[in-house]
């Protein structure tokens, strides 16, 4: 979609020229329509959606964020809504139900056909954030005793109704997972070959496992589909690579938002109402404002010290900036390492030792540089204060920044919550406390009134 096309749609919507909008939409692809909707306000999104052809509307709806789907649902008649939800894949349907009010979701669930309700209801019973709520219960299942000819016949019969036909699930008579077989291996084998001779074993995940962990495993294995089993190793669904990548993308967006001191929007920026943007940021600002009072308290305690040696105030921005950035770097590195399973909470001892060495080395380098710059101008005492403070601050900030994500994971809190803003503020206060303590000792000053 070009800028001209979007400007044309926006102008036609503003002028309420619905016939003109319909004409323009008829020339656009689903991807172009989605791009246009992401740039429109919610009320105009709903109007644009109502002008789409039924088949196009279904394709567009499936690819919208659940939060946007929820707003569109509010403007649809019951018969339109039931038809729309009926055509969704079960996993997409569950995501939509999670966003809707409970009464609306329950009404829609009971309006589904018996077959679709049978597929959806068990998924709603799994915990939020679990693989069971993101899997697809629609897949091709074959047995080891089936021949290639029988398998291909089964694919032709049910292939149009499943998530993917490129990876087939192999189970025994009572649905215990045996392995998987790729469609290309089936096609290349002779028709009389039993599936038991060409399938391979595979990793699987349980329905109650964390969806992000399962998605990470699926991506690491480069698997088109990852089997999902129950506690008795019976196959109940698959996690496709498409859904896995969506889960990981959502997780990355959430971590990036929280690392920047905000809540994730879960919808396109330009279509997000102003009050939601404010709400996504204000809560974090309030939390950070309260934590920043630590810094104010430290400055107040050492007010007398500053009065006796005003030159110390000149280095406050430098020291707090370096301390905060050192802690944030360590936190970001460890948050990422946790996400890709490079480290576990049990590794906290090793992480602390490594970060202490990293922080000590960086502190020594920066401290030496600071001493060389400060000493000729402000004297040896100030140079020593800056050098020792940088050495201490970098070491402590690196240790705290590295340990906090692991502690958060242990407490079952999103590690990103303890990322950049919070740790930066904490390191500011700690760095000032170290700075004035060292300064008081070297210069022989009082620590406060």
TrEMBL record:
The keyword Membrane applies. Its main location: membrane. Keywords: CBS domain, Cell membrane, Magnesium, Membrane, Metal-binding, Transmembrane, Transmembrane helix, Transport. It is found in: Cell membrane; Membrane. It is a multi-pass membrane protein. GO terms for cellular component: plasma membrane. Belongs to the SLC41A transporter family. Homodimer. Acts as a magnesium transporter. This is Magnesium transporter MgtE. It comes from Antricoccus suffuscus.
């Amino acid at each position: 979609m070009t800028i001209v096309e979007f400007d044309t749609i926006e102008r036609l919507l503003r002028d309420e020229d619905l016939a003109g909008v319909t004409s323009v939409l008829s020339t656009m692809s689903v991807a172009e329509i989605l791009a246009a909707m992401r740039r429109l306000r919610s009320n105009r999104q709903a109007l644009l959606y109502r002008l789409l052809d039924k088949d196009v509307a279904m394709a567009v709806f499936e690819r919208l964020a659940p939060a946007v789907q929820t707003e569109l649902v509010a403007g649809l008649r019951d018969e339109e809504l039931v038809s729309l939800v009926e055509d969704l894949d079960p996993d997409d349907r569950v995501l939509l139900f999670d966003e809707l009010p409970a009464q609306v979701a329950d009404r829609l669930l009971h309006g589904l056909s018996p077959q679709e309700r049978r597929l959806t209801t068990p998924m709603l019973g799994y915990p939020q954030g679990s693989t069971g709520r993101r899997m697809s219960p629609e897949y091709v299942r074959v047995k080891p005793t089936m021949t290639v000819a029988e398998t291909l016949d089964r694919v032709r019969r049910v292939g149009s109704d499943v998530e993917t036909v490129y990876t087939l699930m192999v189970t025994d008579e009572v649905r215990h997972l045996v392995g998987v077989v790729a469609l290309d291996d089936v096609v290349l084998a002779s028709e009389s070959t039993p599936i038991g001779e060409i399938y391979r074993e595979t990793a699987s995940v349980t329905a109650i496992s964390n969806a992000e962990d399962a998605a990470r495993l699926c991506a690491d294995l480069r698997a088109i589909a990852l089997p999902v089993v129950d506690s008795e190793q019976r196959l109940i669904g698959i996690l496709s690579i498409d859904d896995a990548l969506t889960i990981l993308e959502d997780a990355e967006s959430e971590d990036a938002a929280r690392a920047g001191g905000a809540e994730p929007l879960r919808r396109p920026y330009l279509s997000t109402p102003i009050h939601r943007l404010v709400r996504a940021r204000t809560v974090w600002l309030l939390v950070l404002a309260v934590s920043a009072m630590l810094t104010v308290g430290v400055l107040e305690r050492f007010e007398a010290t500053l009065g006796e040696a005003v030159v110390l105030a000149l280095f406050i921005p430098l020291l707090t900036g370096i301390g905060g950035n050192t802690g944030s770097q360590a936190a970001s590195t460890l948050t990422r390492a946790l996400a890709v399973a490079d480290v576990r909470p049990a590794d906290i001892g090793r992480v602390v030792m490594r970060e202490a060495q990293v922080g000590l080395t960086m502190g020594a380098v920066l401290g030496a540089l600071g001493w060389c710059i400060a000493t000729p101008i402000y004297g040896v005492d100030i140079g020593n204060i800056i050098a020792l403070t940088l050495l201490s601050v970098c070491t402590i900030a690196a240790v705290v920044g590295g340990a906090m994500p692991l502690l958060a994971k242990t407490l079952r809190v999103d590690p990103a919550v303890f990322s950049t803003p919070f740790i930066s503020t904490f390191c500011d206060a700690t760095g000032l406390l170290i700075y004035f303590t060292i300064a008081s000792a070297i210069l022989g000053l009082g620590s406060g009134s």
